[in-house]
């Protein structure tokens, strides 16, 4: 069984150049403070596959946290914005935090320092505190990243895409094919698939499958459900079909996945 | 199967500053039986904390943890400064069916004694920050409020677990069986008094269950059953005015003389002496 401390790495860095921030399959949270002003910092969230370049010519120092997607499921943070929209495209979120004038900034900085400190401890003792610290940090990041309310979608295409994604999240288990979604949204199937591809860069089926695999993973991690239950709830009638689907998407079989990540 | 487990705050979570609720807190006769967990942090104050049958003087910078079912009463000699955070087991496990309560809150961690933690100057500021953030978050409606409170609560409990009086390793099979037994006992002791009935509900044999329970706790399963009934009888004797007959019935004794004899032999005092001893104390 994997524990939170075995999946999360956190360490300080300090160098003249920028930290290794090329593409990675993991989520990364980067805290950089400017040596000139210790209270002022930058918080970066890098989704898998994204990379960041810190402006050159500065003395940067800070902390880097990395963790896989499973960590979001284990701590119950998968539905937070902006993680919920992953993996639409690799994205970097950035916010400047002024620790001297507001409590939140100060607290976030201390949270990250605590996470780094806890990661150095022996795992059985770190595992009591890490999940809570990480969850609180992710809530703060989610609040920083909060977009203005999407009440005014930029166009008809955006609006349709949002409704489509909303529908997947809401009733993903009852509909399977794009036809079902098109009917529910009262548009033609080819219009829907065209629009989704245009807005997100991925076909509609990609989003539907992503939602299914996420639901299945979440169930494996937190409910202890058997593969049969999960498959049935997702609308798969053929167990072999689901088994293959899961293995393809998650890279391992359902039972291996459950054994590896189940949080007890 | 739910797509995602959304946390709900009401009625599973509650946070308040003690000073605001002073009137409510020092009701003289007020023994109060809990249905959820409560963590009470006394920052400053003098008085007496009574939990079940134990009394303790209240001291500064102490974190108390009270469990569902316990009866407690706080008698303050001066204004208490501190916070109270109440939460249900469901809130803590966040809908995760396989979730185990952290060791500090689970049965092996619940001794007979009041669970307290004295805060030294090293952790005190950290805990204060967490508790104040909880109270602020509870009072304000920010994005992801329930998730935030859940994360903060886990941090608070982790600090509480660090007292180091028990094992922090993942529970072994024996411990899981024991805590399942204790959970079922908590739920069913009124109607079910046979070890074999619990064993059947857990789909194990009576012998196996007795062995495991003895191994983990040092006491037999039937001892735990008796103690659970006695504890509830004492709690009811203190917190209610119901007659012995009514309490006996509630605890599954159809015949009040059986209950009376049971109480007398196990505790050494008879029921009404016990009650008057407490009520007049």
UniProtKB/TrEMBL annotation, chain A:
<keyword id="KW-0805">Transcription regulation</keyword>
<dbReference type="InterPro" id="IPR009057">
    <property type="entry name" value="Homeodomain-like_sf"/>
</dbReference>
<keyword id="KW-0238">DNA-binding</keyword>
<dbReference type="InterPro" id="IPR018060">
    <property type="entry name" value="HTH_AraC"/>
</dbReference>
<protein>
    <recommendedName>
        <fullName>HTH araC/xylS-type domain-containing protein</fullName>
    </recommendedName>
</protein>
<dbReference type="Pfam" id="PF12833">
    <property type="entry name" value="HTH_18"/>
</dbReference>
<keyword id="KW-0804">Transcription</keyword>
<feature type="domain" description="HTH araC/xylS-type">
    <location>
        <begin position="162"/>
        <end position="260"/>
    </location>
</feature>
UniProtKB/TrEMBL annotation, chain B:
<protein>
    <submittedName>
        <fullName>AraC family transcriptional regulator</fullName>
    </submittedName>
</protein>
<dbReference type="InterPro" id="IPR003313">
    <property type="entry name" value="AraC-bd"/>
</dbReference>
<dbReference type="InterPro" id="IPR009057">
    <property type="entry name" value="Homeodomain-like_sf"/>
</dbReference>
<dbReference type="Pfam" id="PF12833">
    <property type="entry name" value="HTH_18"/>
</dbReference>
<keyword id="KW-0805">Transcription regulation</keyword>
<dbReference type="InterPro" id="IPR037923">
    <property type="entry name" value="HTH-like"/>
</dbReference>
<keyword id="KW-0238">DNA-binding</keyword>
<dbReference type="Pfam" id="PF02311">
    <property type="entry name" value="AraC_binding"/>
</dbReference>
<keyword id="KW-0804">Transcription</keyword>
<dbReference type="InterPro" id="IPR018060">
    <property type="entry name" value="HTH_AraC"/>
</dbReference>
<feature type="domain" description="HTH araC/xylS-type">
    <location>
        <begin position="179"/>
        <end position="277"/>
    </location>
</feature>
């Amino acid at each position: 069984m994997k524990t939170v401390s075995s999946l999360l790495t956190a360490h300080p860095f300090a160098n003249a150049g920028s930290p290794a921030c090329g593409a990675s399959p993991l989520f990364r949270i980067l805290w950089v403070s400017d040596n000139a002003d210790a209270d002022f910092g930058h918080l970066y969230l890098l989704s898998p596959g994204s990379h960041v370049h810190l402006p050159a010519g500065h003395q940067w120092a800070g902390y880097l946290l990395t963790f896989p997607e499973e960590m979001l499921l284990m701590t119950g943070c998968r539905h937070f914005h902006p993680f919920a929209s992953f993996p639409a495209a690799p994205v970097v979120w950035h916010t400047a935090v002024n620790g001297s004038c507001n409590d939140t900034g100060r607290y976030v900085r201390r949270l990250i320092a605590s996470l780094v400190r806890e990661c150095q401890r022996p795992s059985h003792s770190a595992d009591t505190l890490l999940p809570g610290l990480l969850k609180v940090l992710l809530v703060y990041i989610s609040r920083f990243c909060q977009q203005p309310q999407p009440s005014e979608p930029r166009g008809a295409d955006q609006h349709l895409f949002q409704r489509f994604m909303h529908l997947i999240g809401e009733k993903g288990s009852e509909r399977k094919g794009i036809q079902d979604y098109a009917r529910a949204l009262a548009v033609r199937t080819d219009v829907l698939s065209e629009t989704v591809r245009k807005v997100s860069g991925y076909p509609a089926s990609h989003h539907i499958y992503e939602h299914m695999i996420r639901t299945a993973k979440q169930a494996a991690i937190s409910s202890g459900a058997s593969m049969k239950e999960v498959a049935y709830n997702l609308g798969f009638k053929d167990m072999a079909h689901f088994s293959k689907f899961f293995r393809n998407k998650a890279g391992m079989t359902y039972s291996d996945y459950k054994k590896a990540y189940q949080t007890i | 199967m739910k797509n995602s487990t959304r946390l709900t705050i009401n009625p599973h979570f509650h946070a308040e500053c003690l000073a605001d609720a002073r009137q409510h807190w020092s009701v003289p006769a007020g023994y109060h039986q809990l249905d959820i967990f409560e963590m009470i942090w006394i920052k400053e104050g003098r008085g007496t904390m009574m939990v079940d049958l134990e009394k303790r003087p209240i001291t500064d910078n102490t974190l108390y943890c009270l469990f569902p079912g316990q009866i407690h009463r706080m008698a303050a000699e001066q204004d208490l400064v501190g916070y109270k955070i109440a939460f249900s087991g469901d809130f803590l496990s966040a809908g995760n069916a396989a979730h185990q309560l952290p060791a500090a809150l689970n049965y092996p961690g619940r001794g007979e004694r009041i669970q307290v933690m004295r805060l030294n100057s090293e952790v005190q500021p950290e805990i204060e920050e967490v508790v104040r953030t909880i109270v602020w978050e509870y009072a304000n409606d920010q994005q992801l409020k329930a998730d935030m409170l859940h994360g903060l609560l886990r941090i608070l409990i982790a600090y509480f677990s660090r007292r180091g009086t028990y094992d922090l390793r993942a529970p072994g099979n024996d411990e899981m069986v024991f805590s399942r037994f204790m959970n079922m006992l908590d739920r069913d002791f009124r109607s079910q008094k046979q070890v074999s009935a619990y064993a059947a509900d857990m789909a194990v044999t009576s012998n196996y269950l007795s062995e495991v329970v003895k191994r983990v706790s040092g006491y037999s399963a039937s001892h735990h059953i008796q103690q659970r009934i006695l504890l509830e009888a004492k709690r009811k004797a203190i917190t209610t005015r119901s007659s012995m007959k009514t309490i006996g019935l509630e605890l599954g004794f159809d015949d009040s003389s059986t209950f009376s004899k049971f109480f007398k032999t196990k505790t050494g005092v008879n029921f009404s002496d016990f009650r008057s001893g407490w009520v007049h104390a």
